[in-house]
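We read letters as residues; the fold follows as tokens. Both lines appear below.
***
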Amino acid sequence: MNQVAVSVAGLSKRYGETIALHDISFEIDRGELFGFIGPDGAGKTTLLRILTSLIIPDSGKAVVEGYNVVKDYRKIRSICGYMPGRFSLYYDLTVEENLTFFATIFGTTVRENYDQIKEIYRLIEPFKSRKAGKLSGGMKQKLALSCALIHRPVILFLDEPTTGVDAVSRLEFWDMLKRLKQNGITILVSTPYMDEASLCDRVALIQDGRIMRISSPGEIVRDYPYPLFSVKAKDIYRLLGVLRDYEGVHSVHAFGQLVHLSFIEKYINLDALRDYLHQKEFHGIEIHPIPAAIEDCFMELMQGYKDQIVATNNI
């Protein structure tokens, strides 16, 4: 039995002069929780809209559960659930009316498939008479997911589902996804939040319509090749510039109130670095070795991608 849920080969899409997707290829296994991680404008939404048959690619091929997304679009829409990035349910309908409407579209009823959504829907069922437009961000999120699941899809596409909701709702949502995965549903989720990458089985790091790497979060982090340190001192903006001038530095990036600093060489004299910063009149200096996070790996891959583009243009 074929275990591939999604197969994409040479997929490209343009909007005028803007390249949204550039010759991307990948496969996703059945039952996998797969994440597309990248900033706004990376091509995540375009990709998910192609996979759900909402737009047509310019070139390449995409197959979902054995169905071609262009030729078999009717079948695709019957087997997949889609939750767009922007809340797109009916604001003037109640929670219950929205859910009933989507069940009816797919030729089913809420009662018939209640067991499919009960773990999620029970959290908002006490508010079933409330208009959808009056719900909080987290409640809208749960309603949208319930509507996407009401017809028992075998595969679920979620476009930045946690954008704009509070931290508690984000954690609750990912707990819900893990439970859905245990039921055998294949889940594709896009997000700009790098910390959510660790919650996926595998991730694709995407930038400018190109996939820079596909792997498990653990493998991506383990493959980070440079010694990495966090540096804290007063006046972080001046600190960034001063560290970039330090000998042997590979990369310098701001992460909140800290600076992540990597070196080309494996062995680093931290006392010499502290002396250098003291000479530059920094105070409250803290330097600690740290493991790489997905953000560090993404920044490294992105720099390599930019260097490759520059080298290509210079040929």
Summary: Residues 294-313 form the longest helix (20 residues). The chain has a mean pLDDT of 92.
